[in-house]
Amino acid sequence: MSSKQVVVVDFSEFEHRKTVITHAVMQAAETEGVFYVKNHGISQGLVDSMFARSADFFKLDDVTKKRYCFDKPRNAGWEKMAQIRPSTGTPDMKESISLGFHTADRCPSEADCAGFADAAAAFMAACQDMSMKLMSCFAVGLGFPEDFFSQHHDVAKTDSQQTMRCLYYHDTSQQKVPANYWRAGAHTDFDTLTLLFQRSGEKGLEICPGRKAVTEFAIGDEWSPADPMAGAITVNIGDMLMQWSDDRLKSTFHRVRMPRPGEYQGPRYSIGFFNQANKSSVIQGPNKKYAPISGLDFISAAMQRNYNALEALKQEQVAA
What we know:
Layout: E1 8-10, H1 18-31, E2 34-38, H2 44-58, H3 62-65, E3 77-80, E4 94-100, H4 116-142, H5 148-151, E5 163-169, E6 184-187, E7 193-198, E8 205-208, E9 224-225, E10 233-237, H6 239-244, E11 253-256, E12 268-275, E13 282-283, E14 293-294, H7 295-319
Parallel strand pairs: 1-2
Antiparallel strand pairs: 2-10, 3-4, 4-5, 5-12, 6-11, 7-10, 7-12, 8-9, 8-11, 13-14
């Protein structure tokens, strides 16, 4: 296990320090693909409220949660141990509920989970605002107009793919989990940019930088912890932005390991805000390294690659 330090970028006085901040996030994205952001402007009260409502939802019985079952075409709703990574071949030991800006029917009702809808609306709006600040830095750094990415992540449009995902990793204190199971197996995100909110004391996230091209799927063996940092957001680059930058910005493999003996064994909660281009947006880098592709087709192709890799793994296991 490596002890590489994750860069911290200070977003205070953003409008006055935009040039300095742009340089810092570009440097972090070009090398590691992950960094912390502090003084980001999203109030801790808002974050705590979303975590509290998320915990309330996951405490509901499965029959109630199934009312909001996952709708795959819209990437919205509740899932339980449904995600299998090609890197592991085993289901992630977690539950999640995903929501977009136009998926109100997948959001828990007031009767089932009081305050969830209001907390989600406020939290998602704050994440959208913060995301567009970050994306304006990447636009300038890549030579695009400053508002370039905000036009392609427009939540007013019904083809928006912006998604919040509340995650609940199960308590392991009374379980004997096989060695090949992970809370989340190694993967990259399909999106442009992910904002990840973690809770203090709930460790396990690890990163593995080093990809050279978005078409490369090799995973190295030097993993570093990206533990929760009080008041900070963990930000990572996704495959979509790596391709949009002609591989200049790095989408980084990450995973969530099981707790080790002596560590906190209880449930782990996190919240991700996944920035994904509108379905109708056309993705192509400034140097046109890759052919143009729509936001919809990019996500579909990424999901198909994962499916193909998982099927290949199954065949290898059968052959063995």
